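Narrative of accomplishments. A recurring question from our advisory board has been how the design workflow behaves on a single, concrete structure rather than in aggregate. To address it, we present the structure tokens for one chain from the evaluation set, followed by the sequence designed for it. No filtering or post-editing was applied between the two.
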């Protein structure tokens, strides 16, 4: 939920800068889709298209870059951080597990990858100590 709220807030910032109406409603829609593990792109892509059709090309390009480069990527960094916060594992191990699991197995790989990396790291530490 934390990453969904952060994505929705960042999306709202981009929309506010561009002068898009109904920013709060769009933010709630983005939060809804992000909390369902769907992309906020379901909300910001139509807004970018609307901005292009309105002739506001500069703001459309800004929101496209903002949506892909900031809103879309924030999930890749905040989710591993939030997962590793409650454990004594290094952030890098969790990050590699989340990204590698996602690339290998999709959505479920986010959880399996981090879990497998945690188990492997713990076994490796026990092996070194033993």
């Amino acid at each position: 939920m934390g990453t969904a709220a952060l994505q929705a807030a960042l999306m709202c910032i981009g929309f506010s800068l561009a002068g898009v109406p109904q920013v709060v409603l769009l933010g709630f829609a983005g939060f809804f889709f992000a909390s369902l593990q769907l992309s906020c792109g379901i909300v910001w892509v139509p807004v970018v298209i609307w901005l292009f059709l309105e002739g506001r090309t500069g703001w459309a390009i800004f929101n496209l870059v903002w949506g892909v480069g900031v809103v879309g990527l924030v999930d890749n960094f905040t989710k591993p951080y939030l997962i590793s916060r409650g454990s004594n594992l290094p952030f890098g191990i969790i990050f590699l597990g989340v990204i590698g699991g996602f690339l290998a197995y999709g959505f479920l790989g986010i959880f399996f990858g981090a879990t497998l990396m945690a188990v492997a790291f713990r076994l490796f530490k026990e092996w070194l100590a033993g």
